[in-house]
Amino acid sequence: MALVSIKHQLVRGMQNGYAVPLFNIVDSLIADGIVAAAQAQNAPVILGLYGGHFELPNGRQQVAYARALAESVPQPVSLMLDHGASFEQCMRTIQLGFTDVMLDASKLPLDENIAQTKAVVRAAHAMGVAVEAELGHVGMGSDYQDAESLRKGFTRPDDVERFVSETGVDFLAVAIGTAHGAYAGEPHLALDLLDEIRRRVDIPLVLHGGSGLSTEQFQSAIAHGIAKVNVATDLFMTTARRLSEAATPEASYFALQRVAVESFQERCEHYLSIFGASGQAGG
Ligand SMILES: [Zn+2]
Lesser CB count within 10 Å: N end or C end of the chain? Predict the structure, then answer.
């Protein structure tokens, strides 16, 4: 019965130098792989359902499956709305049992991002749900070579204190050089900017766009104050490759299912381990 808000774990990670990953679920195979990894590593973990996927016809069934799975293991498992699109969507997911929500109003002007985030925080906190927001804007890896446009989206340290104090948000996603999807070119992290943000606020900071960073980059981001890392693309690319290698004409469907679950589990265990989350479930 360990479907819980991840807030306690993220604060603990921030204080003790580890990060908890959010892995995106899109079906039951990946959910099985993620939770098996959390069990094998005795680690906390976050099942993230992307706002757009929640709206798909099978969105609610996925929520029911993820909840039942999370409740079946002793490790802390959060069910979190990833990139929530609106106040209404956040409320609908909370009603279905999500333990944490992200509202992504990062494309809006600062004042509007503050107003929308504040409204979600007030309602979510009344129901014991923690909230993540994004300040600055994490773009797409496919646009990565356009370094100038990426830099324009970087989080401005001067906005951070005001944003956190006015909204009461629990976790803050920052734009410091990562991007969603696969990178065109080598990713670079602005660790000096991360330090500056860390000095100004004391809530857990979040890194989106984890796929494609090196182990050293992850570990230095965590050492500089990141307590939650979102990873999706690598899990899907690796598993698609392994499935295509295993998909001989004689392969059975059940064998391919096993390949998928084991691939997700192996990649998730890798991330839990390099983020320092292994063995942290009991804290
Ligand atoms: Zn993201």
Answer: N
